[in-house]
Amino acid sequence: MTAERKSGLKSPDEYLAERPDGSLGWGPLTEGILLRRYKRFLADVELPGGRLVTAHTPNTGRMLGCSEPGRPVWLSRHDRPGRKYPFSLEMISMPEALVGVNTAVPTRLAAFCARRGRSEELPRPAAVETEVRSGRSRLDMKITPTRGPRIFVEIKNCTLAENGTAFFPDAVTARGLKHLQELAALAAGGARAAIFILAQRGDARRFAPADHIDPAWGQALRRVVGAGVELLVYQAELTLESIRLGRRLPAVLY
To answer: Whole-model pTM?
Structure first.
């Protein structure tokens, strides 16, 4: 996949199609070379033939270790009226693995897997809702099973890995801290509450909170897990054709 295959995508459904094999299939992607990432949400990319474009970067983190200039990247294209930047950065090729940087993808994948009963920890539900208001926060997903308590899930995209360990977060996150507090309150009230972390890279073998970046979040994670919040960490199986839920990764908290 070395050139622009098609344009005109209008919604995420068009480039993350559900497939019978349990994966989400990427639609048309455009390969390029990353020149720079800046202002958090922008990246300059050189396309085949030398054309330069500015792509939207759907990631609020620092993208440590996966935003090196000169690396191959893959973009989706969305030609919705009024959209300033038609291209979105989806993946970057690092020496060890492809890395998925779009933070909306894990929520889409987790909801798909929940509806299909593809996670042992998340039972096949009667209903799955996304972007759910809870207290003073908005959580990514609520699962209403056919029996048992509702499950509230906050989903995080993990792109930082060092020596086989996936770390989250890659930047200080006050919003992420608030999510942990809300999950703890839900667990205390009798609901199931979980934080679901998807490592969108194939070189991760374990997970640990990034205490060297945001020690407050790491301390809060340990506290809420001790209070009943479930920690689910999975590795994504990521290729240029599809993404699927891979194996569960062990979490090293202490």
So the answer is: 0.89
